[in-house]
């Protein structure tokens, strides 16, 4: 039984979350979806991690979920969402993933971070206007990542 962390990232937040979990769960295999589909088999533990941009999750991660519904159902599965989305506006997840949200045993909010050097001019303008962000920030919810560790360990 393998333990997978399948992710996409732009500024590095989602990758950082995976590295944090791996520090305590050494068997975890970090797999960037950009490199292709991982070789997950039924019964594995799978954390599928995506960030949100302009109201949408990563396209490759959405496609992976859509194309692997039966496999995800047959695994111990967690969807980890990085972004400014909070418990009280979680309905965006239902709109984005629709029925696929129910494939997962757990849905966890990972919080967000901003790394301005990874953003282009327009993106920096957007976060300045929408969230008044003008410098790097880290609001990763490490306490929620710890809960994932409890779910996949053992
Ligand atoms: C231009 C821009 C748009 C964003 N739009 C959203 C959004 O619609 N919803 C959300 O929850 N977070 C949004 N975010 C926050 C990102 O999801 C957050 O920075 C996250 O930590 C990025 O993760 P990543 O580095 O793994 O891609 C946005 C960030 C930027 C820079």
Walk me through this protein's architecture:
The chain is α/β, with parallel strands linked by helices. The protein has a single domain (3-153), classed as Rossmann fold (3-Layer(aba) Sandwich). 36% of the residues lie in helices and 26% in strands. Strands 1, 2, 3, 4, 5, 6 and 7 form a 7-stranded mixed β-sheet that branches. The model has no long low-confidence stretch (mean pLDDT 96). Bound molecules: flavin mononucleotide. Flavin mononucleotide is lined by residues 9-14, 51-55, 82-85, 112-114, 119, 123, 126-127.
Protein topology:
Blueprint: E1 3-7, H1 13-24, E2 29-32, E3 45-53, E4 56-57, H2 59-67, H3 69-73, E5 76-82, H4 91-97, E6 106-114, H5 121-131, E7 137-140, H6 142-152
Parallel strand pairs: 1-2, 1-3, 3-5, 5-6
Antiparallel strand pairs: 3-4, 6-7
Helix pairs in contact: 1-6
The chain binds flavin mononucleotide.
Flavin mononucleotide is lined by residues 9-14, 51-55, 82-85, 112-114, 119, 123, 126-127.
Largest β sheet strand count, sense and barrel closure = 7 strands, mixed
CATH superfamily: Flavodoxin domain
CATH first level: which class? Alpha Beta
Mean pLDDT reading: 96
Count of helical regions: 6
CATH fold label:
Rossmann fold
What number of domains? 1
Strand tally, please? Answer: 7
Q: Indicate the proportion of strand residues.
A: 25-35%
Rounded radius of gyration (Å): 15 Å
CATH architecture group name: 3-Layer(aba) Sandwich
Bound molecules: flavin mononucleotide
Q: Provide the structure class.
A: alpha/beta
Question: H/E series, N to C?
Answer: EHEEEHHEHEHEH
List the uncertain runs. Answer: none
Q: What coarse outline follows from CA principal-axis ratios?
A: globular
Q: What separation lies between the terminal Cα atoms?
A: 11 Å
| Helix proportion range | 25-40%
């Amino acid at each position: 039984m393998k333990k997978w962390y399948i992710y996409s990232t732009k500024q590095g937040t989602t990758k950082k979350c995976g590295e944090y979990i791996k520090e305590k769960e050494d068997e975890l295999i970090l797999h960037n979806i950009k490199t292709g589909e991982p070789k997950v088999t039924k019964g594995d533990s799978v954390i599928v991690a995506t960030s949100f941009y302009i109201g949408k999750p990563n396209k490759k991660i959405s496609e992976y979920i859509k194309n692997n519904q039966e496999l995800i159902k047959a695994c111990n599965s967690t969807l980890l969402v990085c972004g400014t989305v909070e418990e009280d506006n979680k309905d965006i997840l239902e709109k984005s993933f629709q029925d696929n949200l129910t494939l997962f045993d757990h849905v966890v909010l990972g919080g967000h971070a901003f790394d301005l050097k990874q953003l282009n001019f327009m993106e920096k303008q957007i976060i300045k206007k929408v969230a008044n962000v003008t410098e790097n920030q880290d609001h990763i919810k490490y306490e929620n990542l710890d809960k994932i560790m409890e779910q996949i360990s053992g």
